[in-house]
Known about the structure:
This protein is an alpha/beta fold. The chain is 62% helix and 13% strand.
Amino acid sequence: MIAEIIKSELPLIKKYIVFEVCYIVFDVFTLVMVNAVLGDIFPEETEFRNLLLFLTGLLLNVGLYMQAQKMSVRIVTGMIGKLRGRIMEKVQQAELESFERLGKSSIRNALSLDTQTIADVAHTFGWMGDAALLCIGLLTYQFLVCRPAFLFTAGVFSVGGLIYAAEILWAKKWIHRARDQEKELFDGLSHVIYGFKELKVNDRKSDDFFHQGLKPVSAANRSHRTRAENALALGNVLASVVECAAFVPVIFILPAFGDFSIHALVVSVVSLLFFPFNLIKDTIPYILRGWISVERIEELVAELEKLASERSMEPVREGPLRFRELCYEQICYAYRDREGNPSFSLDHIDFSIAPGEVVFITGGNGSGKSTLLKTITGLYAPVAGRVRLDGAEVTMARHRDLFAVIFADFHLFDRLYGLGDLDLDQVGELLKTMELDNKVVYKDKGFQPLTLSGGQRKRLALIAAMLEDKPIYIFDEWAADQAPQFRDYFYHVLLPGFKKAGKAVIAVTHDEGFFPSADRIYTMEYGRLKCG
């Protein structure tokens, strides 16, 4: 994916390279002019032509460098924007199985940490390109002036570069391990944020979590980071040694064992002084981190694509969504562990729903109710069985728009996306019915604020679902934590209202006192669905 993005920016990158090469040519030209003047060992009268050439080269150098930097910014911002867009597209297209397997931490890191790291490194990479081109130019100049000095310099740089590369690869190994550990660390921090109340009321649980759970993960992450930073520090020291070692043959060996002009040796030494050692030393660790971020993003994209279901080429429905009957025949689905072995499964589910029907599903914890809802709505792709919509066999992933769902772990968005302009009177009436009109306002196509109690948030989610006006509504324990008047409203007013409007309703519930409100009742037991 990243290679494709780079390819799309190639025209601009080529222009950038042209400006960079021209900038380096004039940079080396200014050095040549300095050496030409110094070659006369401070003459009494310096030719005015040399001054003009030097100033012209300097001005062209600055102008070309500014243009190259502007192009670099355009390239980097464009590539990072496309990269984030592609990742978000992959996340949008991914199936729930892929999303759950990857985990929120991996996706969050890719969209924020990794893309920002690549953005920072992309600018640094431009500096590294400057340094590399400058090194090539200086070595070429040294080759033309004093070939033995060039051979010594190239030899020292080659040996030092190999040693430095070994240290960089060693550091890369430990940074990767630290990143793996960071996922566990971020998951642990999520427990701190979302489970703070539970930890606060139980000191033993809190101590055990922090000392046996969070701290060991943090210590392992710190250990891996320390090893990586030590390797980078050692590489930095080696680079400094190489920098000093490059001067040894030119200053001490060549004058003692060869007949070289003072001018050639001075040019060689000045060329070495112009080598951007510090820039290279400082930028390589950043480039290493960018390299790792690129690998992480590529791994994420590969995982997102791995389990993504192939999208049907059926035409998108136009107009209001309607259906006559939705049937699931012998549907099977299985969760799998890391080794690929089934850990829980839905076994040969037969189920149907029609407009105007209210169906209740009950069952104990872990019986498979939530898994059934995800399979019914096409979030999980069944491994066996058939789905028929109005008699035609379909892939449920293409017909998820039939459903408005409030899952047990529902999420409230800051805006009512996908609904367009709403009837404000209808919105106000629903807020009043749910007794939220004094707590919530509808503004900028969204409800504000969202900092409500659990029951209030569920009622707000119900309003959002009703405004979607879908043919099938699914409620996962919606009434479980509602006050008695709202529970009564749900079963005796809302569900009959849906039924009268020709809407189908599937509700997971344990409220046995309200079972007469259903047309049919199913019971889930160990992944099997039984009627009655």
